[in-house]
Amino acid sequence: MTTLLAEAQESSQDFPLQQAMAKEAEAAREKRARLIKAESEYESTIKLTQAAQEIAKSPVALELRRIQMIAEIGTEQNTTTILMIPSDILPLAKEISKFISSE
Questions:
Q1: CA 86 to the chain's CA centroid
Q2: Given this model, what pLDDT does residue 13 score?
Q3: Half-sphere CA count of 42, side-chain side, radius 13 A
Q4: How far is CA 99 from CA 26, 82, 93, in A?
Q5: What count of Cα atoms within 13 Å lies in the side-chain half-sphere of residue 24?
Q6: How confident is the model over 50-82, as pLDDT tens digits?
């Protein structure tokens, strides 16, 4: 009876190939991650646009959203101070600023 002993040894020539394959796999994972992130950002943009269009239909909706935001912040234990300024005051502030600068 004859017994053969065979050992598998990694040659130094296989190591660069393994490194190249690992780099290629890492690049593919990074590419997929970037594509997923870009797609998510695109979907977020669409959702935000739709939400803005819905809120623009009714000024009351905007005020309700502001109240909801204050309630959410209020439930957290933090030291955030919120100063609510109606959005209608911005054009008025611009007019006052123009009036003062023209004098």
A1: 27
A2: 67
A3: 6
A4: 61, 29, 10
A5: 6
A6: 988 888 888 788 888 888 888 887 777 667 667
Query: Rounded distance, CA 18 to CA 12, Å?
Result: 10
Between helix 14-57 and helix 59-75 the angle, nearest 10°, is 120
Measure the CA–CA gap between 22 and 29, rounded to whole angstroms: 11
Could you identify the residue written with the tokens 């040659």?
11
Angle at 70 between CA 94 and CA 86, to 5 degrees: 20
Helix (H, G, I), strand (E, B) or coil at 12: coil
> Cα(78)–Cα(37) distance, rounded to whole angstroms?
31
The whole-model pTM stands at 0.47
